[in-house]
Design a protein that fits this description.
This protein is mainly α. It contains five helices and two strands, in the order H-E-H-H-H-E-H. A two-stranded antiparallel ribbon has the order 1-2. Helix 4 crosses helix 5. The radius of gyration is 15 Å and the shape is globular. The chain starts with a helix and ends with a helix.
Length: about 120
């Protein structure tokens, strides 16, 4: 159940980012769902490997280089998912930053609702 919720929240976050960041386009909810799966898979495989390899650079930049890696993962996912388009590295970089913020906010809101249901 938690996996399904995370998947839905990631898709919602992608839709929000698409409305905020120019050049970050999601054609609909199904494309957002598919894109969130692909982004998760790419981040869990290639993204993880890149984060391990570039860890010294990430430490030097105080973690900011991870946004570059996340931007690259968004560009790769946009090449694989029809209906999900990121036009350029600039849009991907800004999208990666906004997506991190939106994901944190959406998950915090969902977490607060989950805690209220259990009381």
């Amino acid at each position: 159940m938690r996996l399904l919720l995370n998947w839905l929240l990631s898709a919602i976050a992608l839709l929000i980012v698409a409305h905020v960041v120019p050049g970050f386009i999601v054609s609909g909810f199904v494309a957002a769902l598919l894109a969130s799966v692909v982004i998760g898979f790419v981040n869990a495989t290639l993204g993880l490997a890149l984060k391990v390899i570039t860890f010294p650079l990430t430490v030097i930049t105080l973690g900011l280089f991870w946004f570059v890696i996340n931007a690259l993962m968004l560009v790769l996912a946009s090449a694989l998912v029809p209906g999900f388009q990121v036009s350029g590295f600039g849009a991907a970089f800004i999208g990666a930053i906004v997506l991190a913020v939106v994901n944190a906010i959406v998950r915090a809101i969902a977490g607060s609702f989950a805690r209220k249901d259990h009381r």
